[in-house]
Amino acid sequence: MQMPPLDPAILARRSEIVAALRALVPGEGVIDDLEGMRPYECDALSAYRQMPLVVVLPETVAQVSAILRYCQDNKVKVVPRGAGTSLSGGSMPVGDAILLGLGKFNRVLEIDYANRCARVQPGVTNLGISKAVEHEGFYYAPDPSSQIACSIGGNVAENSGGVHCLKYGLTTNNLLGIEMVLMTGEVVRLGGKHLDSEGYDLLGLMTGSEGLLGVVTEVTVRLLRKPSTARAVLLGFPTEAGAADCVAAVIASGIIPGGMEMMDKDAVKCAEAYVGAGYPMDAEGLLIVELDGPAVEVDYLVERVSGIARDRGATTVRVSHDEQERVLFWAGRKAAFPAVGQISPDYMCLDGSVPRGRLVEVLAEMRQMSKKHGLRVVNVFHAGDGNLHPLILFDANDPGELKRAEEFGADILRLCVRVGGVLTGEHGVGIEKRDLMGEQFTEIDLDQQMRVKCAFDPDHLLNPGKVFPKLRRCAELGRLVVHQNKIPFPDIPRF
Amino acid sequence: MAGTIKPRDAKELRQAVEWALNDGVTLDVRGQGSKLALGKPMICDQVLDVSGISGIVDYAPEELVVTLRAGTPIREVEALLAQRNQMLAFEPPDLGPLLGRETGQGTLVGAVMGNLAGPRRLSAGAARDHLLGFSGVNGRGEAFKSGGKVMKNVTGYDLSKLLAGSWGTLAVLDEVSVKVLPAPDQTRTLLLHGLSDEAAVKAMCAAMGSPYEVSGAACIKDRTALRLEGVAPSVEARLKGLRDLLAATGAPMEELGTLESRTFWRDVRDVAPLSSARDTVVWKISCPPTEGPAIVARIKAQRPSVEAFYDWSGGLIWLALPSNADADQAIVRGALGSTGGHATLIRGTDGVRARIPVFQPQPAALAALASRVKESFDPKGLFNPGRMG
């Protein structure tokens, strides 16, 4: 993985840039010493790190606007950062770019229960929103596993998901509005407390744009009333195919569970050893199906799902009887990553999506690859929506292993694309999958996306080195050669 | 009268756009043309008719995805899904009767291009939330794609969101993949009679904030309607819960069964209460739900003959006003005040729509950004020029 070469002219101007930022953000909002910048040198994709040019932590929208305008005028690059929990390197610093941290934007501005929404600053954590409204029985639905730490601004940038996406959608389906600052320093508002946009859906475009288009300074999210009941069903199958069939059968029968997770045998073993959730050790494929809603509905659906599972040969069918047991069923799944960390010095977490019908075949092929690369792989996934999280186990102290793990990961993601899936379901492209974009998109596809980028950031100053494998200049992308009247009318029906 | 080009497949579509680009020909892009009376009237050199690129490509009910060509009639898609007890959850309205046409016309992609949605917008989202991916041709005559056929996908920019609601001004699509959902077993409606607008919106917001999973909340005259969908035991339990929750309103209550409910909500979806009078203009206002009654009251103060009803818990106002030279746009848009909402003229004569902005005018910085986005797809302005004005 290569980052763009650093611009010596910018590095040479470092002290001038730091001084200019100090004039815009007074006090301790500008950090330029090595020790102070150390916590920012990487995000949750910690295999890759680079010290930023300087860190700036603004407190007001006016300051964000002034910083971006300065950067635009002086052609200085900017990497925006929320809580730094990106698994794809989305907020990894760049040596010749300012790191713009939004951590001080940490206030809940307004909670409006009648209109079921909350207006918050981007640095508020995902869980912080739910915590702020839980006493009234409300919550914010998307629940990425980093929800205790990740910021809502970062969720907007990455279009974060979670285990309840199948029923409740991703970030993009739960946003009502944002305020953002463009590279010119202009502040624009998209959406609000109402539904749907008045022109092009720029809110939808911004969501998942990985910090390449603008800096979000305020977010309005939709709040949902908590379901009155939730119960989980633990289903063990003697084969992975049996578990996968059960997932398809549940959905085909018209049931959309609140969550439907699958773990392979190795993941079950790790998780069980780590938290003792009572998982069946003889299962080759384990499903956790959560059903939520009014109690009578949940009871009814639990029966139906259990019946479908038995018909598909489930050897374990256990229904949670109280909240404690439901949480225990989930504890193993939620601890799967740290549990894997117990049996391997390092692991790499991938994030492809595939059509559910191809799940079994993808798993089998992944095992073949595992043999080829000589590295183990453990699988947990959001089975309901076909979102895989293979964990490749390796030892970073062995210099050859990181490279092999990267190659293995790339092979898995190519496989996802080959069976009709995509490179990333919820973690984002960042730097991690940047060089694989050509597997899913043609050059024309990518050029069109880069032209959209040019509409927001014509000098490619925002979050450089991310998402696009090869950045083309906007002037070049915008060139249009027209052969005036030289193309004959094609042979198409006309009247 | 402009001539018509009718490509038969994606390749011919690309050739047609390439030709138009080189000859500087502007294109009126349409499927069945069922929504031609919506948006700014256009003067184009040619009609690009995509209705010949039609048919279902792939339908996998257990994957909850249908892939189809751009000219496929929406009726064909809905009939196919119904065979497997599935549906387009965003409930695309049939605006035919409102716009003075027959019912049952239009393509699914046409509904997506308008980002249309019915009463279930509240709980299930709009067309934008269900478009998983597409392929098409941009204004440079290049075939490109975005998104995919899977539920969870954050690979690259989400151009599907931009295309949904772009009224054909960014690219011409040839194929789309759309998320579908199981159709509910049962549909019931709780009607509350005699509430004022304010009390109705208060009741609807309370219902939406309850755990009873309300999938439609509308108020037509003095009838406030709340829709519950799902399996029978659940619907029964939630109905009871809602009755208890709203008992304090003192309103007489009535229940509609599945069949009656379907008719009722289809009428709400298709704006039937305002469709019959032909000499009115019709506005659609999107606003924060609790602001709905005040907005209507401000308009009523100046135009007492206004007819209005609410959907989306008060957040969608349908308004009919006697036709006049400017559709009373200053009064309607002025009534929004600082609510942040927007008003779109859905029905008006060609003359009125040519005179006033059909879509809500945007602040300068946002309008400039939107026009740069348009240029990034269609630098020569070939597709539906001016339609979103």
TrEMBL record, chain A:
State the needed cofactors, names only: FAD
Print the keywords alphabetically: FAD, Flavoprotein, Oxidoreductase
List the protein's name: Lactate dehydrogenase
Superkingdom of origin organism? Bacteria
The yes or no answer to whether the keyword Chaperone is present is: no
Q: Does the keyword Flavoprotein apply?
A: yes
For this UniProt entry, the molecular function terms from Gene Ontology, in alphabetical order, are:
FAD binding; oxidoreductase activity
Q: Per the database record, which ranges form the FAD-binding PCMH-type domain?
A: 48-226
InterPro entries the record matches: FAD-bd_oxidored_4_C (IPR004113), FAD-bd_PCMH (IPR016166), FAD-bd_PCMH-like_sf (IPR036318), FAD-bd_PCMH_sub2 (IPR016169), FAD-linked_Oxase-like_C (IPR016164), FAD-linked_OxidoTrans_Type4 (IPR051914), Oxid_FAD_bind_N (IPR006094), Vanillyl_alc_oxidase_C-sub2 (IPR016171)
From TrEMBL, chain B:
Q: Does the keyword Transcription regulation apply?
A: no
| InterPro entries xrefs | FAD-bd_PCMH (IPR016166), FAD-bd_PCMH-like_sf (IPR036318), FAD-bd_PCMH_sub2 (IPR016169), FAD-linked_Oxase-like_C (IPR016164), Oxid_FAD_bind_N (IPR006094)
The protein depicted here goes by the name 2-hydroxy-acid oxidase
Q: Could you confirm whether the keyword Flavoprotein appears in this record?
A: yes
The UniProt entry, under Pfam families, shows: FAD_binding_4 (PF01565)
Q: Which GO terms describe its molecular function?
A: catalytic activity; FAD binding
**Organism listed in the record:** Reyranella soli
- Keywords in alphabetical order: FAD, Flavoprotein
Where in the numbering of this chain does the FAD-binding PCMH-type domain appear?
1-183
